[in-house]
Amino acid sequence: MNRRFLTLGAAFAVIWGVLAVRVFYVQVLRSSHYRGLSESQSVHRDVLSPSRGEIFDRTGSRLVVNVKSREGVAESFRGSRLCPNGAMAGQVLGMVGRDGYGQSGLEFHLDRDLRGTDGWRYLRRDARRRYTPGASDQIQPAVDGMNVRLSLDARVQSVVEHALERGVLRTGAKSGVAIVIEPYTGDVLAMANYPFFDPNAPRGASGDNRRNDAVAKVYEPGSTFKMFTAAALLEERRIRLSDTIDAEGGRWEINGQWIRDTHPFDRISFEDAVAHSSNIVFAKVSTRIPPITFYKYLRSFGFGMKTGVNLPAEESGSLKPVGRWSGRSQQTIAFGHEVATTPLQLAMAFAAIANGGTLMRPRLVHGWADGSGRVVRAEEPREVRRVISDTTAAKLRRAMRGVVDFGTAEAIRHPTIAIAGKTGSAQKIDPVTGRYLEGRYNASFVGMAPADRPAFVALVVIDEPEQFKYGGQAAAPVFREILDRLAEREYDWTRRPDAWANGASGGAARDTLSRPKEKITTTLASFRLKVPGSSVEPEKARSAKVAVSGSAESTGPHEMPDLQNATLRDALQRLRALGVRVEYQGEGRVLEQSPAAGTPLRRGDRCRLSLGWAG
Q1: What pTM value is reported for the model?
Q2: What is the distance between the alpha carbons of residues 369 and 504, in angstroms, rounded to a whole number?
Q3: Are residues 125 and 190 in the same domain?
Q4: Are residues 388 and 403 in the same domain?
Q5: 3-state secondary structure at position 429
Q6: Closest CA to 295 of 328, 335, 317, 325
Q7: Which of 456, 400, 518 is nearest to 186 (CA)?
Q8: Do both 50 and 37 map to the same domain?
Q9: For residue 148, what is the DSSP state?
Q10: Would you give the distance in Å from CA 350 to the centre of its chain?
Q11: C-alpha–C-alpha distance, residues 405 and 580, integer Å
Q12: Is 448 helix (H, G, I), strand (E, B) or coil?
């Protein structure tokens, strides 16, 4: 009996000893471990999401904003994005994924600046998993993303997109691109792609619609490239605008292959060769400079390299080194074949001609600011290099005026604003076979206005037009509509963007546009093309023949002029010169007029105009 009690007591002693050792092990030796387990079950680490930075245009209008939604009782917020203007500049702005990271466009390229940095805090909860805020003061605040201000102007963007859409639909084209550049700073005022892409509704958009062809489209520029051949020749003093060249009647053979001109000529001046876009003349005169010199000029204009714009997926185009040129490469490159460019690359090269010879880096972002409006960083205009002299640039603009005054873009001549431009039409190349695709063209036009001291440069590329294949027919009218609508709204190109916040210094003070040596002090609408008989004659006698299109003198003082498709300003000037009273309704171009063109008029007669935008 006693043995049983002793055995039982010994067993209890062992058990209690084991328990005591276990308690000692748990509470003393492993106390920190189990304390951590307890904390992990009762204390929750909550991620604090930052507010993503918003995107503004140059005037302070919001292009991308946050729409915040509350996530759970932890009171942390993660914003979703909204573009208040819908599809406006959709490919440029891009989109954000559900994870809060940028996926395309500026949202992707500037994601690190826009996204900010996550924060955290610890919250304790009881056995019923109820939060007890304030039980822990461990917190790391989130750092909100920076706001970004762009060079884009929503007003100009709207005009450009409207004109581009109408141009693509009018020609039955596949797609289109249009870019507007302020040449002295490199500011991108508008960058449009059609079909449009709405970041608010990305699911229905194809991959092609999401792509920003302004920087991703690589194509042979065709005749628009001739201006850079002309630039090299003029700068090297190997040709003058007045020099004449045999254009061979429109057919010329090089190494067993024929070069043809759409407009055949015999002997023609170099200036007229620009106006009428003679491939033969440019092929002939291009060999007046050594191939390596020609190549260096083209590289200096930025061809074959990226522009450095603040956008993802930019292509560099293609310009083969001289060592890979064939026996006819210099002649064909001279008129825009065997070379490939992007729309933005080409627009910036033309901006160098517009501003007097300096290649600028395209500026899409003006600066970054924190939530309080303090400018954190500003991006100033950047000169890449001087390419040609101001004298050469002026000669090129003069030659480009001929393109519009009496050449391949004569249809868009403006009665009061002098336009300089260049048309281009190039067959598309099959990326698989490397051969030209029959009947498929890129039709393009690059223009600047006013021609003598351009306030802006605009490029338009129409991809695979069905109705028209030439740049003067398909793309140039889009430029003219952009010019007309901006002039009608009296858009002031001298207006500088204000600082983001009153009293901001440093970056804010620098966030203004530099100006050319001779400041532009008037609005675009105030420029006038000089007419014959005025105190300042046009530069050549033939230009006098192409004065104000459809002026009163051209139709006779006693007949109703044909005002179809004229702007309101043009119509008013022409009718008031005849002493006719005008009534009109709507906005845009003249769609209907009463009385009809050619009707005899007397001073004091009344004319009615109906305005609109033809589809």
Answers
A1: 0.76
A2: 10
A3: no
A4: yes
A5: strand
A6: 325
A7: 456
A8: no
A9: E
A10: 14
A11: 28
A12: strand
Q: 334: closest CA among 263, 393, 277, 392?
A: 277
Per-residue pLDDT tens over the stretch 542-599? 333 322 233 333 334 468 888 877 777 678 777 877 888 888 877 667 888 888 887 8
**Cross-strand pairs, 208:** none
Q: How many CB atoms lie under 10 A from the CB of residue 515?
A: 13
Residue 535 lies inside a defined structural domain of this protein:
no
Residues involved in catalysis: 223
Task: Tell me phi and psi for residue 140, to 5 degrees.
Answer: -125, 105
Q: Dihedral of the CA atoms 498, 360, 193, 262 (nearest 10)? A: 140
Looking up tokens 């194809």 gives 206
Cross-sheet strand order for the sheet of 436-449 = 187-194, 175-182, 456-463, 436-449, 420-429
State which amino acid sits at residue 203.
R
DSSP assignments along 265-290, one per residue: -SEEEHHHHHHTT-HHHHHHHGGGS-
Do 83 and 224 lie in a common domain? no
What is the enclosing helix (H) or strand (E) of 77?
Answer: strand 76-82
3-state SS assignment for residue 578: coil
Whole-number CA gyration radius for the chain: 33
**Tally of domains in the chain:** 4
β-pair partners for 457: 181, 448
Other CB atoms within a 10 A radius of the CB of residue 388 amount to: 24
- Residue pair 514/482 in contact (Cβ under 8 Å)? The answer is no
Stretches where the chain sits below pLDDT 50 are 70-78, 494-557, 614-615
Given 150, 171, 202, which residue is the final one in a domain? 150
Of 531, 551, 277, nearest to 422 by C-alpha is 277
Residue bearing tokens 């884009």: 152
Q: Are 493 and 562 in a shared domain?
A: no
* pLDDT for position 73: 35
Q: Which residues contact 569 (CB under 8 A, 6 or more apart)?
A: 416, 487, 488, 525
Last residue of a domain, one of 91, 121, 150: 150
Its domain, for residue 29, covers: 2-41
pLDDT at 41: 59
H helices of 236-388, where? 270-275, 279-285, 291-300, 329-334, 343-355
Question: Which CATH number characterizes residue 193's domain?
Answer: 3.40.710.10
Average pLDDT, the chain: 82
